[in-house]
Amino acid sequence: MTILVTGAAGFIGSHLCEALLNDGHRVIGLDNFDPFYDPAIKWDNLARALQQQTFKLVEGDIRDRSLLRQIFTQQPVDVVIHLAAKAGVRPSILQPGEYLDVNVNGTLQLLEAMAEARTNRLLFASSSSVYGNQAKTPFSESDDVSHPISPYAASKRAGELLAHTYHHLYGLDVACLRLFTVYGPRQRPDLAIHKFAQLALHNKPIPLYGDGKTRRDYSYVGDIVQGIRQLLELPAWGYEIFNLGGGKPVTLLDLVRALENALEQPLEVHFLQKQAGDVEQTFADVRKAFQHFGYQPKVNLAEGVKAFTEWFYSKEYNSSMYSL
Ligand SMILES: NC(=O)c1ccc[n+]([C@@H]2O[C@H](COP(=O)([O-])OP(=O)(O)OC[C@H]3O[C@@H](n4cnc5c(N)ncnc54)[C@H](O)[C@@H]3O)[C@@H](O)[C@H]2O)c1
Questions:
Q1: What is the pTM of this model?
Q2: 151 in contact with ligand 1, CB cutoff 6 A
């Protein structure tokens, strides 16, 4: 298959591109190397994929319709895996317009270009944040998601709804994946595990917002990539939404303990006020993904954090791009 991966140079995108290339697919990676974090990290993420002849990188923006048209007319694309986005809950509160423009308008441009080119399979990276501050656990795909509490969450829900519209109007085959806090090697530097590891390296205390009892369902990036590979094997999707998570939520303090074990050093913790936009808990019900395509997260938190720290040590000591 020929697969267009938007956001290819990012954390999840770069792992996915490597796996798809290994599976024998031709991959076109589209990324604008957005400065949300150092683009040098993204080039580093892509180093392996760029060595493959079946990988083609297009540097550009998903909002650029003429560029999208060019990509789709140069070669038939079988599937689009749309990961490009402004990610992160807290920064979306500071830059709501930019988040909505990339995540909603960008998704719209992509859907329009797909409909025009009659490219009709879309896998869209949504987020557990669409569940908002829901008390009922675990979160299932049929739960009410009409109460997002950050611009980022609202933008992801808008993406799911737009994708449904294009499924209805043009028969696009759509799978929306609600990803639950993804971690592992190459994790974004703004996310908890990576940020904490950097602070520990510089002997700085770890800021914990709230009382440390907020719970997150962490998903290992390799499990997410495996889930996407299994989903690609289904002959048709129609329009479906799937949770992809680890299915075992842990508190922020548990996470700090796991990191202490992996780094083999005690971490100093500073408790700070809870941040606006942060949800109390996330907890994925992954039964639907298991029933439809056999999704089964395999890597537990201790193993995943260990894999992260091994990668972290291999990079951080030698590189200024990750420095605080
Ligand atoms: N990492 C997580 O925990 C998590 C959880 C839920 C959902 N997601 C979603 O998964 C996707 C990938 O997340 P990630 O953690 O790998 O993030 P990331 O920031 O590492 O990757 C996103 C990539 O998109 C690119 N991009 C941003 N704006 C673009 C634009 N206008 N045009 C082209 N490229 C653009 C960035 O340069 C970046 O390389 C995102 O859609 C994110 O919202 C991630």
A1: 0.96
A2: no
